[in-house]
Write a structure and sequence with these properties.
The protein contains 17 helices and five strands. It is mainly alpha-helical. Helix 10 packs across helix 13 and helix 13 crosses helix 14. The longest helix has 27 residues.
Length: 351
């Protein structure tokens, strides 16, 4: 134990007249009797603290052999010890505030109690991390092997970053998200990574044609109020789907929906995996209706599925599309006018 720790122990002045720098200090606990067992300060700091808190009296080494616990009333001895304990707790509290002011109050109070026992800041912090008060607030930081995912300050700062990111896109109430924030910390999702996810959704959903957001909300059963679409990113299931390409699939589906074509999410996901992107989907669905109408006019059944397959590289579907386009091109290049028979025009006058 260091000298700073010892300074605040109150030594009964009626029992100790002089204590020089070379003389040891001991604690005599109630009930051990005159000449009983004494605990030396230098041997076991935790035992010293427990003994004093339990009513023990600090005495000088020179008075150890003549000390008579009956010479001082139990009440007086207890009062002396109480003053010393209170002084130490007060100092421990101040140390806790100075070093860990960001911690919840009950955790700081536990730190002060642990500091009284050890007098060592690092030991006190380690001991505090094994108390119910700490577990109540930070158990999610501890891995199965006892190591920490990150320290308390980093964890609280990261959660603050999550909240700041969500507040910028309209989320104001974080009550329902606290446990999910903790899960994100456990999964080691940094503040920067979460910001990138939100940016991805903003670019891929909000900053898009309206059908993308509508489909996203429908798919995840999200209400229409602003911010919920980003708050949903805290849901691990939604996070995983987004990272696996859900937004890109919804963008393709939205291009189709905005032009009157419908289909299942799984169908559009299949097209995305086959190589269809939003830009190609826009061109596909913009012309699909026209091509189908032309096919109907010339007696060719051109289905949407065939057009989609052609867009992702299916050779047969592409050949079918080329044939249709060729037939349409031939019709459009013909001139309206009189029919020619035996070298002569009949009907309308030749141009």
């Amino acid at each position: 134990m260091d000298s700073d720790f010892l300074q605040d122990w109150s030594i009964n002045s009626s029992l100790v007249s002089t204590v020089d720098g070379n003389e040891g200090l001991y604690v005599h606990t109630p009930g051990s009797g005159k000449g009983g067992t004494f605990i030396a300060f230098g041997n076991d700091g935790s035992a010293i603290a427990d003994a004093l808190i339990g009513g023990g009296v600090a005495i000088a080494e020179g008075l150890k052999n003549t000390y008579d616990p009956g010479a001082v009333s139990t009440e007086a001895a207890g009062a002396t010890t109480s003053v010393g304990t209170e002084n130490l707790l007060s100092e421990g509290t101040e140390v806790g505030k100075a070093l860990y002011g960001f911690l919840p109050e009950e955790v700081r109070e536990e730190y002060a109690r642990q500091w009284v026992k050890s007098g060592d800041r690092a030991v006190a912090l380690g001991a505090t991390r094994n108390t119910p008060a700490w577990n109540k607030h930070f158990e999610y930081l501890k891995r199965d092997d006892g190591s920490l995912v990150m320290d308390e300050l980093t964890a609280l700062s990261t959660v603050a970053t999550y909240k700041q990111t969500l507040s910028e896109v309209g989320v104001k109430d974080f009550t329902d998200y606290e446990s999910q924030f903790e899960k994100m910390i456990t999964d080691e999702v940094s503040g920067l990574e979460f910001q990138q996810r939100v940016d991805m959704v903003y670019a891929g959903v909000k900053d898009q044609i309206p059908e993308v957001e509508r489909l996203f909300r429908e798919r995840h059963n999200l209400p229409l109020d602003e911010g919920t679409i980003f708050g949903a990113l805290i849901n691990p299931d939604i996070q995983d789907k987004i990272l696996k390409g859900e937004i890109q699939t919804l963008q393709i589906q939205a291009e189709a929906a905005s032009r009157g074509f419908s289909g299942s999410f799984s169908r559009f996901e299949e097209l995305r995996k086959l190589g269809l992107n939003q830009e190609a989907a826009k061109g596909l669905y913009e012309t699909a209706g026209t091509l189908q109408s032309m096919g109907t006019r010339i007696g060719t059944d051109m289905t949407l599925a065939s057009l989609e397959q052609a867009a992702v590289g299916d050779i047969d579907a592409q050949n079918e599309l080329k044939l249709l386009q060729g037939q349409v091109s031939s019709l459009s290049s013909g001139k309206a006018g009189a029919a020619r028979k035996d070298g002569k025009y009949t009907g309308l006058v030749q141009d």
